[in-house]
Specification:
Layout (H helix, E strand, L loop, with lengths): L3 E7 L17 E2 L2 E2 H10 L4 E8 L1 H10 L1 H7 L1 E5 L4 H9 L8 E4 L9 H14 L1 E7 L4 E5 L2 E6 L5 E10 H9 L9 H6 L6 E4 L10 H17 L17
Parallel strand pairs: 1-4, 1-6, 4-5, 7-11
Antiparallel strand pairs: 2-3, 6-10, 7-10, 8-9
Bound molecules: cytidine-5'-triphosphate and the ligand C[C@](O)(CO)[C@H](O)COP(=O)(O)O.
The ligand C[C@](O)(CO)[C@H](O)COP(=O)(O)O binds next to strand 10.
EC number: 2.7.7.60
Protein name: 2-C-methyl-D-erythritol 4-phosphate cytidylyltransferase
Organism: Symmachiella dynata
Amino acid sequence: MATFAVILPAAGQSSRFQHQQRKKPFADLKGRAVWLRSAEHFTNRDDVLQTIVVVSPDDEEWFKEKYAANLAFMNVDIVTGGDSRAASVKNGLAIVKPEIEYVAVHDAARPLLTKQWVDQVFAKAAETGAALLGVPVASTLKKVADGQITATVSRESLWEAQTPQVFRRDWLEAAYAKQGKLEPTDEAQLVEQTGKPISMVAGSSLNFKITTADDFRLAALALDALPKAAGLRALHPFQDEDPRLI
Ligand SMILES: Nc1ccn([C@@H]2O[C@H](COP(=O)(O)OP(=O)(O)OP(=O)(O)O)[C@@H](O)[C@H]2O)c(=O)n1
Ligand SMILES: C[C@](O)(CO)[C@H](O)COP(=O)(O)O
């Protein structure tokens, strides 16, 4: 069985969030913090040997105290974030246990996953070396400058990358060794510049990232509808033996 570590970056400033006076990974989403809902999709999997949450230095002490019971029960490691997403993920990568073969990075701000989507992207990464979830761009894309449209960007072959983004551990480590001055907005961009193949696995627009307060409100609505709306044989993370046909 392929083995995985999961890194959940949660060390951003949530500057676009402005809701509940909390950073988005710590906002209460229908009774549980966003980061907890994201982590839960992984901490009960037999193939996940380590779960790591990356938290900013400013939040670390508060986080450890607030979620002490959850962290212990779920066996989640904490690592200090950096001043960029890439730096935060790199800090998580540095503590991945030596025996683990694959590393999955999943935004702590993407709580709306199903077991099926995780199964699919994990399996694809184990087959090809690297894979991520994504969806084809559905809207027309415009370039804008000073409030004016300057061009239409063809959406042909364009996909919106999501997470989990899953890589052979040695590929991701080699990619970071060659990072140079690149400040990637996702981990795939780092691995792309090493020339390794990365597979795109068709996911769902329901696996959206909570960035703004509107996203948060939408997530609260989608949470209950997810199994039905996903059009998938959805398994609750804790009820693998109880699949529900959609
Ligand atoms: N230095 C950083 C920056 C971002 N992230 C994490 O990367 C994920 C995706 O980033 P984004 O949605 O941009 O989060 P923020 O950077 O917090 O958002 P904003 O740009 O609105 O400040 C988030 O879970 C965020 O916590 C991180 O761990 N460390
Ligand atoms: C990784 C990601 O979710 C893929 O779309 C996205 O790039 C994260 O961006 P952020 O600025 O770190 O939220």
